[in-house]
Amino acid sequence: MAKSGGGGGEAAAVPPPAAPVIVWNEKEGKFETEDKEAFLQYYLRELVVAHGEGKKKKRTVMDMAHTFVPRSKRGLGLAAHLTVAAFNHAQAHSMLVIPTCSYISDTFLPRNPSWSALVYTEEMKSSI
């Protein structure tokens, strides 16, 4: 005899999908999904930035150049997960960020303004 699910026609709650595992591929300058299909490409640059009144300091800056998510995986939030992983890495290593990728500058940062403190700005340029 089969058990009845009880009544009311309520649907069982479906748990949200687990956050994807993002891997740092230091050799290729990427943050990527485990299957390597979605990624954020970056380049490290050394820049001299203004630091206090008239002082200059050399800083490593992460230029986030490009994000890619295959068509079959779009709409799952992978670009945002990749970007958060890259910003967390930059923050942990005292880096500034240049958001060259249009997704990061035009979509991610406006939706996540708390990360703006890490963004390299024109005001930080040193006048050498």
From TrEMBL:
InterPro entries in UniProt: Acyl_CoA_acyltransferase, Gcn5-rel_NAT, GNAT_YJDJ
N-acetyltransferase domain boundaries: 23-120
Domain of life: Eukaryota
Record's protein name: Acetyltransferase-like
Protein species of origin: Iris pallida
